[in-house]
Design brief:
Elements lengths: L18 H25 L3 E8 L5 H8 L8 E5 L5 H4 L5 H4 L8 E5 L8 H4 L5 H20 L2 E9 L2 H13 L9 H5 L4 H14 L6 E5 L3 H17 L13
Parallel strand pairs: 1-3, 1-4, 2-3, 4-5
Helix pairs in contact: 1-10, 2-10
Length: 250
């Protein structure tokens, strides 16, 4: 069982790191990502599922935009999970998730995910604790099945400080280009911060068997994007993929 205490993990980059140097490294990694995604699509033997979780304004949208900028859209699908629809609520909680899982050759990016069903629902006590424990088990089995079927599952928690989050939420009130993101509920949810941290820590402890969590310090976007890009590139390189070559006539 993975024991993580979020309060003991910094939300910022180590002071010794150079922002300029890491931004240059990120550019190099993105060039590799472009090639690797082409290989993934051409070979068609594996899939990549990237799961982004984090508090409001932790930078999920920015990570999708900036990390996956070089990726060919034909080989990548992004899905943002919102409040379940009436139809989705009539099924098990993983039903809507499974429909969006990427097929072999594809990259899939989840902005929020099945983990909302053991986070916000738990924080607000919309489900009881026995249901939460059952869902942990279902999630582990679900992700184990994906991995065994050739899907790389990369889970990222974007670790933002409460102070940085407030600053970003306030920017949405004053920056015309960000006002469309403003949601009154985001401010209201801040009063549950400690409960969310506890629930996330329980998620890390109970749902890390098939696919490990990556805790990403996210107060500085340049550091967040470097860490995510690096992990994605390393995971794809480990597949040692090859172009399939000319197709033979049957």
């Amino acid at each position: 069982m993975l024991k993580i205490k979020l309060s003991s993990i910094s939300t910022r980059a180590p002071k010794k790191l150079s922002k300029d140097n890491l931004k240059k490294e990120t550019i190099k990694l993105k060039l590799k990502l472009e090639v690797l995604q082409n290989l993934l699509y051409a070979e068609g033997k594996h899939a990549l599922l990237v799961i982004l979780q984090g508090m409001d304004a932790s930078g999920k949208d920015g990570a999708i935009k900036n990390v996956f900028e070089p990726v060919n859209p034909i080989g990548c699908k992004v899905f943002a999970f919102k409040k379940p629809s009436e139809l989705e609520l009539k099924h098990d909680f993983l039903w809507r998730i499974h429909q969006e899982v990427p097929e072999k050759g594809m990259m899939g990016i989840f902005n929020r995910s099945h983990y909302e069903d053991v986070l916000i629902q738990r924080v607000h006590k919309w489900v009881d604790e026995n249901t939460v424990l059952q869902r942990f088990e279902h999630i582990n089995n679900f992700e184990k099945m994906l991995v065994e079927n050739g899907t790389i599952v990369l889970k990222f928690y974007l670790h933002v400080s409460k102070e940085e989050q407030l600053q970003r939420l306030n920017e949405r009130l004053n920056d015309a280009s960000k006002m469309w993101k403003h949601n009154e509920n985001d401010i209201l949810e801040r009063k549950y911060w400690s409960q969310y941290m506890k629930c996330y820590e329980d998620v890390f402890a109970n749902c890390s068997d098939g696919a490990a969590w990556n805790i990403i310090p996210s107060d500085q976007n340049w550091y967040k994007e470097y860490l995510i890009t690096k992990k994605v590139v390393e995971s794809l390189e480990a597949l040692k993929m090859k172009f399939p070559g000319l197709k033979k006539d049957k």
